[in-house]
Design brief:
Keywords: mRNA transport, Nucleus, Protein transport, Transport
Largest sheet: 2 strands, antiparallel
Subcellular location: Nucleus
GO molecular function, one term: small GTPase binding
Protein name: Exportin-1
Strand order of the largest sheet: 1-2
Strand content: under 5%
GO cellular component, one term: nucleus
């Protein structure tokens, strides 16, 4: 009896499927495909998979495709058949006889026309039609233009017969453009790609006329959307005359205010904005931009963008994302032509206002698009500012901009307001400088792991670079914006952990961008305000956040610390206080900052400063046990590495060896104690606590050796023989245990 269920056929039926000398049993194939897609058990699915693979690998299977497509009602079965056909077209097409190639070509074309000529079948069978379109484009890559010269005229003629056929023709043209220009690498030879591009170029007039006709005549929203999507695929490469010497731009701008077509239209305009042709089409670009800005202001006022994004639908959010792409593309390529007249400059400044608003949108990808442009924009202004340009004749100045200085100064004057807003943006959205993870190693110890080159760190580097350029362009404004924002933290108007963090990361990021005198004055005010904030703010969590920010900021300004010993000493002693603070993260931050400061200021700690009885390192070593009392092992290692840097800066050998001896006194005592116990009983080295102590002592030695280098020799010579003994005994114990 014929198999009719949704289960895989028995072995006899499987063999019947594999016999391709007669038309394939479509109901059995439907059941096999259904079993593969999950209606049967795991074993049934596996058996179905095996049969389908065998069929795919059979070189004659493609001859059954038309029979399957005509007789199956199952979409997955049709897709399976088309997959077989696609493989033949890709890899065996030119080996097939002409009549077979023509047969496939005509059959696929006929089915597409048949399904897309009827509105109901076109909507119901959309997935199937889309797959047939892909198959047709694969055929075209072989047949057109040489063996199917009339394809574009045929397609355009068919498109005029009905709106649904026209909609599908647009889909085919879009696929064809994408296949040739976007996905062709690796699938076709350069010569073939060149030939197809040339054919599309030469025949684009017909497609262009069709698109304009459709956009002016149809009321079908689906057809308009399909046409706009097709234009978007073509705009990056078509001959420019079709864009600027036809009604195309005006037509696109006509659709922009309509919500249903807004995103597709904006994508088309973005493609146009990204093109460059010297000065030839400047007038058209200015016209396009100014008309676009008038429409945009009616659709979305500039001050409402972050809220509009936060509360918007997917379409509305996509619109703001597309706006970011449009503005960045236009400004990268055409900002200079907008600077040329007062009217255009007004529209340009409004556009920059929009882009700043979009930059506040709470979406990482949108912000990255904006940030990349701001970096380029500010860098260009900074480089021009740095190259002291001679005064220029009045004829070459930007008309209507005050001043008799250079064009550079005029541009800075033009952009003064956007640049000021941009500084505030960078301060408000500054990324975290470094991700530090606290992780547990295989021995159960807590260790620090620094994540390098992650997205946040890359973003921080770009933002830091941008803010430094902005600072150089106007130090006063940068300082005033930061101090004003800090005042808002103090009076509670703008207080939050995130606001304080981003502000302090921004303050730290511009280290070295001001002249020393200005930097000193600025930093004194910042630290004073942060200390006041710490005093007046209640709550342990809040104080911990403020403390970590104080530590971060002072660690970023080594030039100031080196020039002000008393301040440096106060900061380090404050760090020692924080090393006893049990709030999560504070001790790590204190140890990290101590290391960073010591690396930049190490000479200061081994030199006896005015008003001091001894060098700071000696005072530190006297109180060492108390200072590190509350630290975790991984924090002690960081602390010892820091003191190692100090000792390394001492040029007197005797003093350096004495400091090293005092530094290693505590771990050496513990080491001697363990070695003494091991001398009495080797089993002590099997104790987990003792093993952990040995590892910590060795790690402490490693940390100091890292920073001291060759000057670590006196210490290693003390413990070297004992280390070998411990190693030998542990090795023996391991061999005995495992053997």
């Amino acid at each position: 009896p014929r198999h009719t269920g949704a289960l895989p056929p028995p072995a006899a039926m499987a063999e019947k499927l594999r016999d391709l000398s007669q038309p394939i049993d479509v109901p059995v194939l439907d059941a096999t495909v259904a079993a593969f897609y999950g209606t049967g058990s795991k074993e049934e699915r596996s058996a179905a998979d095996l049969i389908l693979r065998d069929l795919q690998n059979n070189p004659d299977m493609w001859l059954q495709v038309v029979h399957i497509l005509q007789n199956s009602q199952n979409l997955n079965t049709k897709f399976f058949a088309l997959q077989v056909l696609e493989s033949v077209i890709k890899y065996r097409w030119n080996a097939l006889p002409v009549e077979q190639r023509d047969g496939i070509k005509n059959y696929i074309s006929d089915v597409i026309v048949q399904l897309s000529s009827n509105e109901v079948s076109f909507r119901q069978e959309r997935l199937y039609v889309n797959k047939l379109n892909i198959i047709l484009v694969q055929v075209l890559k072989h047949e057109w233009p040489a063996r199917w010269t009339s394809f574009i005229p045929d397609l355009v003629a068919a498109a005029k017969s009905s709106e649904t056929i026209c909609e599908n023709c647009m889909a085919i043209l879009k696929l064809l453009s994408e296949e040739i220009f976007d996905f062709s690498r690796g699938e076709m030879t350069q010569q073939k790609i060149k030939e197809l591009k040339s054919s599309l170029n030469s025949e684009f007039r017909l497609i262009h006329e069709l698109c304009l006709y459709v956009l002016s005549a149809t009321q079908s929203s689906e057809l308009i959307r399909a046409t706009l999507a097709t234009l978007h695929a073509f705009l990056s490469w078509i001959p420019v005359g079709f864009i600027f010497e036809s009604p195309l731009l005006e037509t696109l701008l006509k659709f922009f205010p309509m919500a249903a077509y807004r995103n597709l239209t904006l994508q088309c305009l973005t493609e146009v904005a990204a093109l460059q042709f010297g000065d030839f089409y400047n007038v058209q670009y200015v016209k396009m931009y100014t008309f676009f800005m008038l429409q945009l202001q009616a659709i979305l006022p500039p001050g409402t963008i972050p809220n509009a994004y936060a509360n918007g639908s997917n379409e509305e959010q996509a619109f703001i994302q597309n706006l970011a792409l449009f503005f960045t593309a236009f400004f990268k390529n055409h900002i200079r032509i907008l600077e040329a007249s007062a009217e255009n400059r007004a529209a340009l400044l409004v556009g920059l206002e929009y882009l700043i608003g979009i930059s506040y949108v709470d979406d990482t990808e949108v912000f990255k698009v904006c940030l990349d442009y701001w970096n380029v924009f500010v860098l260009e202004l900074f480089e021009a500012h740095n190259q002291m340009e001679p005064a220029i004749p009045a004829a070459q100045m930007i008309p209507g901009v005050d001043g008799t200085g250079t064009a550079v100064h005029q541009r800075r004057q033009l952009y003064a307001s956007p640049l000021s807003k941009l500084r505030m943006l960078m301060i408000c959205r500054m990324a975290k400088p470094e991700e530090v993870l606290i992780v547990e190693d295989e021995n159960g110890n807590i260790v620090r792991e620094t994540m390098k080159d992650n997205d946040v760190l890359v973003q921080y580097k770009i933002m830091r670079e941008t803010l430094i350029y902005l600072s150089h362009l106007d130090h006063e404004d940068t300082e005033q914006q930061m101090l004003k924002k800090l005042t808002k933290q103090l009076n509670g108007e703008d207080w939050s952990w995130n606001n304080l963090n981003t502000l302090c990361w921004a303050i730290g990021s511009i280290s070295g961008s001001m002249v020393e005198e200005q930097e000193n004055r600025f930093l004194v005010m910042v630290i004073r305000d942060l200390l006041n904030l710490c005093e007046i703010t209640k709550g342990k969590d809040n104080k911990a956040v403020i403390a970590s920010n104080i530590m971060y900021v002072v660690g970023q300004y080594p030039r100031f610390l080196r020039a002000h010993w008393k301040f440096l000493k106060t900061v380090v002693n404050k760090l020692f206080e924080f090393m006893h603070e049990m709030h999560p993260g504070v001790q790590d931050m204190a140890c990290d900052t101590f290391l960073k400061i010591v690396q930049k200021c190490k000479r200061k700690f081994v030199t006896q400063q005015v008003g001091e009885n001894e060098p700071f390192v000696s005072e530190l070593l006297t109180n060492l046990a108390t200072t590190i009392l509350d630290l975790e092992p991984h924090q002690i290692h960081t602390f010892y590495e820091s003191v190692g840097h100090m000792i390394q800066a001492e040029s007197d050998n005797t003093k350096r060896d004495e400091y090293l001896k005092r530094l290693m006194s505590l771990p050496n005592q513990k080491w001697a104690e363990i070695i003494g116990q091991a001398g009495q009983s080797i089993d002590i080295l099997k104790n987990q606590d003792v093993i952990r102590s040995v590892l910590n002592i060795l790690q402490t030695n490693t940390s100091v050796a890292t920073s001291l280098g060759p000057h670590f020799f006196p210490q290693i010579s003390l413990i070297f023989l004992d280390m070998l003994t411990v190693y030998r005994n542990v090795q023996r114990a391991c061999i005995k245990h495992y053997c």
